[in-house]
Queue: 3 jobs
Job 1
Amino acid sequence: MEKGVDLKAYRSSFLMRHLESRAKWIGMKQIEQYPFYLKNHPEELQNFLDSISIKVTSFFRDSAPFRDFETLVIPELLKKKDGKLKIWSAGCATGEEAYSIAILLRKALEKEKKRWDIEILGTDMNEKFLEKAAGGKYSLKEVEGVNSALLEKFFKSVDGRSFEIKIFLKNWMKFQKHDLLKSDGFPGQDVIFCRNVFIYLNREAQKNLVFKFVNNLSDFGFLVLGRSELMLAEAASLFTPVSLSGRIYQKRRAIKGGKKWENEC
Ligand SMILES: C[S@@+](CC[C@H](N)C(=O)[O-])C[C@H]1O[C@@H](n2cnc3c(N)ncnc32)[C@H](O)[C@@H]1O
């Protein structure tokens, strides 16, 4: 992870928790000592930044969003006439979310006659996570959420204890370093998954991010949030809820005349 992460955007309780745990790990009695330690040990900054990059993730995490993505969203996406789909997994950690999306799409496309051009982009600020995502290799424990039929179809067993995503699925994927709090993003997305990232951010940063996603979604594109993340009231009028349990929302209005939605609240 690069230094220069905008820490002001994160919830103070979240930052405090991680400061305390770093201080304890170093062996400090009082957290007030931490800034002095940081001054004398510049390498500690990276340790702290790594500690706030939470890697908890899994294939088909929470099941409802993926069930509803498969049954409600994919059929809508496949009505597209141009045969092109762009999906962004923002804050993808080690890639399980992005590959879960790819697996469901591939399953759906098996029944399709039309040729589809698919791009699934996974981004994160943590380079180590992205390396693992690009490698697409997971332990037996990490593939627990994948049923045996899907495991057989989309993974190859490496040594009996780890499983690698098959190449035809990897060919759809692109993993790229990107700080969600900094650059504008990747326009023209049909779907954006951003799950379990908002929970770490303060309200202002959440608002900026949701408007950034509005601007990156194509007309009537879908936004998928995490289980404990609701659509913000300030942006609710721009979306139609598709699945409340799956936290799936469809962008309601087209951006007219290139209008960009700003956080005006
Ligand atoms: C808990 S994981 C969520 C992974 C996956 N979306 C899921 O729900 O299973 C949160 C991820 O967000 C990433 N993240 C946090 N802040 C970020 C930022 N400003 N820009 C990009 N990624 C960020 C972390 O590095 C971490 O990989």
Job 2
Amino acid sequence: MGNDVTCNIVGIGSIQLQMFDDTTKLLIDVRHVPDLRKYLISLGALDTNGYKTVIRGGVTKIYKGILLVMKAKKVGNIFQLEGRTGSVHVSMVSEHDSSSIRLWHRRLGHMSERGLKILADRKLLPNLTSGKLDFCKHCLYGKQSKQKFKAGKHTSKGILDYIHSDVWGLAPTILYGGSSYLLSFLDDFSRKVWVYMLKRKSDVFSVFKQFRALVENNTGRTIKCLRTDNGGEFTSKEFENYCKDAGIERHKTTVYTQQNGVAERMNRTLLERARSMLSNANLQKELWTEAVATTCYVINRSPSIAIGCMIPQEVSKGHPCDYSKLRVFGCDAYALVPKHQRTKLDLKSKRYIFVGYGDGTKGFRLWDPTTRKIIINRDVKFDESSLVQLDVDNKLKRDDVSDFQHIQFDSTSNDSHDDHSSDSSHEQVSESYYEQGSD
Ligand SMILES: [Zn+2]
């Protein structure tokens, strides 16, 4: 800026301008800078795009060829546009923007800079090469105090040879769908994780049977050993007999000694990351189950130290994952309203909140805050910009972006640019994030 202060660009998009002559013009590549009090149009950028500027007698006129397209009158020392803003479309933060690493940090459930670098080096994240991650307060909000976990030593040679499992609950709040417990399974060989939400702890046995059918069918392999603590939900007679009949060996640890380290650590990671995502999205705890399911989805696409930074889903499926569909949990999502559900005067799309990835379908899970229900839709446009901006206290609220009132001309060619201030505490916090599942 003129006084050498830098400002953060949090998004790039287009703005419709209603001109003095009632025509509408679209201004593209508009930088969204929350700290700026005035909205500026760069004469330099207009010049680059072939517009001619004539300033005379306190009036600036912008021409394309012989056509007058914009007019501004001098007020004090600046020229104020004769016109007003129409609807504003702040698009997703530009893929080439320096804040891209912030975007991927959030899309991948607050993954550490190291984890992001591994994926970026393999060119798995569209348009992200590398970068420095700035301070993220949501990582701090998610983190529990450090606990040491002991883990039993073993070596698994193939998928499903050794499954770790643990149950967490009772959740302190009523969750969407009425569940209160989290049950996770972790495959020791691939480090792939599955999560189930349970209403009762006694559902563990029946869910294990479903899990076994699913993974054995999908892989053509069989579960050889199941490691759990000796909580009652895992030790019922029927559970024991079932495993005996299926030839599944049982490894059990006492509940309070934390020998079930791998599974307990996984549950802790799921909880921490879900908390960070809910904090970032400013969503109610009610949507915690959605946050946990989405965390599980991204953990399976994150490098795991326990298997030499390979990616669980990749190890499990045998081919690289597609990251192009990942979006920031909790961002605004606009889904097309089917024709039969709207009248001629109704809007064609409706705003929802993105809360996850559909199971087995290519759709997205969207939360409708009005009906408090989740729908699945494939035809969705996302606006991730409001959740990717820097964590400043005076951050713009989601709806404030449509409140651009005055636009003025800026004759300087200085672009405001990103301030890469970093905070060492972030490194400490995120250090173990991509190490999920390590012993
Ligand atoms: Zn974060």
Job 3
Amino acid sequence: MPVRLDVDQLRVHAHPFTGAPGMVGGLLRHLQSLRQIRDDRGWISELLDEAENERMHLMTFVQIAQPTRLERYVIMFTQAVFYNFYFFLYLLAPRTAHRVVGYFEEEAVASYTQYLEEIDAGRHENVAAPRVAIDYWGLPDSATLRDVILAVRADKAGRRDRNHCFADTLKQGGWPKGLSHTVSAEGS
Ligand SMILES: [Fe+2]
């Protein structure tokens, strides 16, 4: 069985994990809001949107690179481990949990910038954008992989800023404040 480690395959492998933090954070914030009978100031919907957005990244990249059956088993196992790790991290240290995601997203923005450079240099084929991506991001029918990567990188840049903002807010103590942060749509 060939070992495939191309960039598209790695995207498929990464997203079963990157889709977990938003759902975990949203779940725990939801329970906290119910428990303390206090408004969440928009945090829950932001976090659940993150999870949905990452899931759509996976639905997009799986159209470009299909994992093998063995890879699917590995993904299932490691997702279970990561989900539980992140759940307890968020439960015990939510500020750190958001900061970790912020740093991951910083790296992701840089890696998508490299991806674009690979496409622009002709080292990675600029295939047609999958239909699921065209529909999700409202791209034109003529959109290509490059357009998809630009959209994904903008998502990542927003999530980077948002999670650092969440961490900063928690560092100040008290209940989450409103989402008054600014989110840049460009990559770094
Ligand atoms: Fe993603």
